[in-house]
Amino acid sequence: MKKNMLLLGASCMMLGLCAPKATIHADSVNHLKSERQTIQNESKSLKGKIDSKRSVESQNKKEQSKLNTRVSSITSEVDQLTASINEQEQQINKKIEVIAELESEIQHLNRVIAGRKEKLVEQARALQIDGANMKYIEYLMSSENLSDLISRSQLVAQLVHSNRQALEQQKIDQANLQSKQDKQEQEKDELAQIKAKNEADQQTLIQNREKLNQEIEKLMNESAIAQSEREKLELKQRELNDKADLLSKQIAEEEAAQKAAEAARLQREKEAAAQAAQAAQNQASAYAAPVAQNQRPSSSGLIYPAQGVLTSPFGYRIHPITGASDFHLGIDLAGGGPIIAAQSGTVTAATFNPSYGNMIIIDHGNGLSTLYAHLQPGLFVSVGQSVAQGQQIGIMGTTGDSTGVHLHFEVRVNGSQVDPLGYL
Ligand SMILES: [Zn+2]
């Protein structure tokens, strides 16, 4: 029994008719699922990043609102400064006018004072005196007579009077000049102060404006960067979600296919089991009866090619080890002794094959041929040779994929294997 099982396993391998394994589908589904899980994890991690970008953007909006308040406050400062600067400009213009007026008055006084000084000097020179009162006495003392003295006295009195008046006026004008010069100096100082304040205010204004612009620009840049990064991340997330959706679709298709394949496999196994049971019943007599030599040919004209017990029929079998179903393309006769030609014909193959071992194929004409496998080394016939029915062609062996001495016998019609028992 054990040998038969092994032979069945060997023929499954040999003929390559093993049923496809359901585990292949399961593997591909698992692979798709793990791929989808990876993508979903990546998408989830992107969601976190996108949320953090959103919070940066919303924080930015709050800061922008705060900044707007600051902007209005700085704007009103700017307005005040501008008004103050305008006022200062007017003050400066007025001061300049005042200073110019003072300047012309100073020049006028300077001219008056200079002119008077010249006149006084002239008068003194005319009298050959230098203007000091004491010199007048000498002048009077040098009179030649009384009338000369009187005349000189009147002149001196006149001169002294006019001289005193001129000198007093000169003093007043000079004081006036000094006061105007002081005033002009003071105006100039004030002008310088106003100008300095004006410049300081303008500097502050420029700085405030610059600061404001920088803050606005910075916030706008940050917002733009956060938004562009978020958009990129969202695009990537959409792509990942599309990919995951596609994989879900593939998984569903694969699982449906797997289910269908499993159902088909169960159906095939069920049918094969039924067929095997039927075949076993049909072959009960064949199992019991050893193949005899010197037989009568069947209605198809064939005789049994060897003596032995039918251990494995043609057709589907449930593999005893893997549980998979496979198809046996011939019958196995376990026994020993000579192998004979089932019918007369021409040898078309007499060779060694790794699976069949030492094997022979005989062409019987009309598309019918027979195959004999696992023979002992030293085949009795060669390719092209004609053989008669019942002629020995070799000895039963266990070469190739075989674990016990038996003959694997196939009948082929136009190259396709058919159940040999239908021809024997
Ligand atoms: Zn076989």
Distinctive features:
424 residues; disordered N terminus; two-stranded antiparallel ribbon; Helix Hairpins; binds zinc ion; 8-stranded antiparallel sheet; alpha+beta
Describe this protein's structure.
- This protein is an alpha+beta fold and 424 residues long.
- The protein folds into two domains: 42-236, Helix Hairpins; 291-422, Glucose Permease (Domain IIA).
- The protein has helices at 2-15, 22-126, 133-141, 146-282, 284-288, and strands at 308-312, 315-318, 325-328, 331-335, 338-340, 345-353, 357-365, 368-375, 386-387, 392-395, 406-413, 416-418.
- Strands 1, 4, 6, 7, 8, 9, 11 and 12 form an eight-stranded antiparallel beta sheet that branches. A two-stranded antiparallel ribbon has the order 2-3. A two-stranded antiparallel sheet has the order 5-10.
- Helix 2 packs antiparallel against helix 4 and helix 3 packs antiparallel against helix 4.
- It is rod-shaped.
- The two termini are 24 Å apart.
- Mean pLDDT is 82; it is low at 1-24 and 284-292.
- The structure holds zinc ion.
Give helix and strand order, one letter per element, not per position. Answer: HHHHHEEEEEEEEEEEE
Low-confidence stretches: 1-24, 284-292
Helical stretch count?
Answer: 5
Distance separating the two termini: 24 Å
Structural class estimated from helices and strands:
alpha+beta
Strand residue content = 15-25%
> Which whole number gives the mean pLDDT?
82
**CATH class term of the largest domain:** Mainly Alpha
- The CATH topology annotation of the largest domain reads as Helix Hairpins
Helix share, percent: 55-70%
Number of domains: 2
